[in-house]
Amino acid sequence: MPDDPLVREVRQVRDRLAAKLNYDVEAIIHDLMARQRQISEGHAIVRDVNEAERAVVTPAVSPEK
Q1: What is the C-alpha to C-alpha distance for residues 34 and 15, in angstroms, rounded to an integer?
Q2: Is the dihedral of CA 26, 28, 32, 37 positive or negative?
Q3: Domain boundaries of the chain, sorted by first residue
Q4: Which residues, in sequence order, are CB contacts of 31 under 8 Å at separation 6+?
Q5: What is the DSSP letter of 1?
Q6: Residue-wise pLDDT tens digits, 18-57
């Protein structure tokens, strides 16, 4: 399989983050959860597929008459 630069970069970042936390899986999980909380503050989060399917999508622009 050819070397994909994107995959390589993701793996490097993942390894750097894991190394900072001494490869402690529990610490990695807590860190990722904290990051997710920060990112999602003020944003609606879809918790399950059924909720997403029920969501009503409204057009950004009114249709022309």
Answers
A1: 18
A2: positive
A3: 5-54
A4: 17, 21
A5: -
A6: 999 999 999 999 998 888 888 877 776 666 656 555 555 5
